[in-house]
Amino acid sequence: ETGVTQTPRHLVMGMTNKKSLKCEQHLGHNAMYWYKQSAKKPLELMFVYSLEERVENNSVPSRFSPECPNSSHLFLHLHTLQPEDSALYLCASSQGQGAEEAFFGQGTRLTVV
Amino acid sequence: QQQVKQSPQSLIVQKGGIPIINCAYENTAFDYFPWYQQFPGKGPALLIAIRPDVSEKKEGRFTISFNKSAKQFSLHIMDSQPGDSATYFCAASIGTSGSRLTFGEGTQLTVNP
After folding, report:
1. CB B8 within 8 A of CB B107
2. CA dihedral sign of residues B87, A74, A99, A43
3. pLDDT per residue as tens digits for the range B14-65
């Protein structure tokens, strides 16, 4: 699959578990993003990475920990989540932060039990 | 604080109809307004976008109408088709940060055959 790939597609985890979401982009972009999509709520921008540096953290709880080891990969490490954290987590990338188009992955459907 | 408000939440039209989705924004600093289309199981994809120096933009069957004084913009889909059934999100951003998007709540469109 080309573009932006996210794994796993679905994840069920307990509140005491630790898991990680992975995102890989094959577009040669240098900016990557995590968004949260909850039912009947707008997509929420969580983190922005540009050239592997975190440039924005939109007041996201510390139980979400992003990591960007290189410009093609982005991770979201999860620990001690709450049921209200259940949502679709979308990764996106763009050619620079000033690009007009963000390319989204298919998302990881997370359920916290 | 919801900066981009979208309506309606859901919309059902017959094939050939012209669904209209409306968005209103509060932040006058926004100067880039894209629409994203999301099919089930997929991430959002850029459909069409407008900047406030024009009042209308057409791309194929999709048209954005923009009213700067009213701080409103809308998406019109001409000759709608069942394949247009999807969730549509309006969004807004500031300056060239087109990828740091503030999204509306989404509209689930169903086009019946």
Report:
1. yes
2. positive
3. 999 999 999 999 999 898 999 999 999 899 999 999 998 999 999 999 999 9
- For residue B57, the enclosing domain spans 4-112
Tell me which residue in A43, A48, A98 faces B98 most closely, judged by beta carbons: A98
CB atoms within 10 A of CB A103: 22
Residue A98 contacts B where some CB pair is shorter than 8 Å: yes
Which of B2, B41, B99 has its CB closest to that of A99?
B99
For residue A33, the distance in angstroms to the closest alpha carbon of chain B comes to: 8
What are the respective helix, strand and coil percentages of chain B, to the nearest 5?
5, 55, 40
pLDDT tens digit string along A70-104?
989 999 999 999 999 999 999 999 887 767 788 99
- Is B89 in contact with B36 (CB distance < 8 Å)? yes
CA A102 to chain centre: 13
Q: How many independent structural domains does chain B possess?
A: 1
Q: pLDDT digits over A18-76, tens only?
A: 999 999 999 999 899 999 999 878 899 999 888 777 777 778 999 999 999 998 999 99
Chain B contact set for A90 (CB, 8 A): 43-44
Closest CA to B73 of B30, B111, B110, B108: B30
Looking at residue B90, which CATH number applies to its domain? 2.60.40.10
